[in-house]
Structure prediction request, 371 residues.
Amino acid sequence: MKAELRLSILLLLSLMIIACGQSNPAPAPVAPTVATETPIAFPTEQVTATPLPTPTATPTPVPELRQLTSDGCCVMPAWSPDSKQVLFIDKPSNDAPSGVYAIDIASGPSRPPEMVGRVGIYSPDRSLAAFAEGSETIVEKISTGESWRIPNQGHAVEFAPDNQHLAWEIEAISGPYDQRQNDVYIANVEGKDAARVTRVFGGGLIGWLPKGLSLLFMGRPSLETHDSTLTVLDLRTNVAADLVTAERIAGVSISKNGTWIAYFISFNNDPARNGIWMQRTDGSEPKHVDLWGAYQWRDDSHLLVIPMRASADQPFEVREIDAESGTSRKLTDANVTPLNILNGDWRVSPDGKYIVFVNSGDRNLWLLKLP
Prediction:
């Protein structure tokens, strides 16, 4: 989410989370630069990663799989906060408006999708939304229609879970990516008391942690530093905790309550550090995942992984990993419930009961009810 509120950025931020899988490591701290004062990095020791145990064979239940939409609709689905509707951006016909449409998972294709809002960036509970008006960012309270301008020159914002704060980043638009300066700002939801909280190079804002008032960001603390650092900054105490340091960290995903993160490290000089990792947001318990593929959090401590297939003509399967115990189980069997997911386009419902995905065969949205 960079620069101005272009449609693609609005779409990504209003609709949510990651697709194709990748890999990650163990902690090593580098303190970031903070607006008012340099935060104090928690003292950390090099932690030995705990590899996950080899999963044992257990019977795989048969989950429910059904079609939600027709006529090749649509891509990049998201969920309503109550997990009862699947949301997507559409323009169903030439005379229909473009906007966010919703389909009820109970009725499915028996009822046409209905428009539920403008294209914009929504708060987690969808009570607030940010829209682009020219070069300005306008925030609106959905229930009343009240709106106000954010003084950030039209940059995309990300709402905090408390609905009282928001963040944005201002990134240099030229030069090698790993050298681009990126300043992260926060303000209250009215846009007042704006302040820069950190500056990184070749990275930026990852998101808010669901509890408290903490930001997760990543990047090189300075141009003299070779590696990037993934950092949690507690805005109430102005204390930063550096979680992991490596040259290439990507695919950062925050669990439902912010207790865990998942990420991956790639092309590291130490091959043992490459792959997907789970780690607590206090910096402890990094665990290497013995799978490679796409991943998303089901809840606060269970990571869903769709492993890479042996060949392109094989269906996908879903596995679940318990971050606390490290145990793994298969949720779907490709021979029983074949999943054909297009371009890693799938989303887990907020209640963790469903996956919606774009079917590569008919380009429609399908619903998988998880065991």
Q: What stands out?
A: The CA atoms of residues 103 and 113 lie 5 Å apart. The chain has one domain: 7-369.
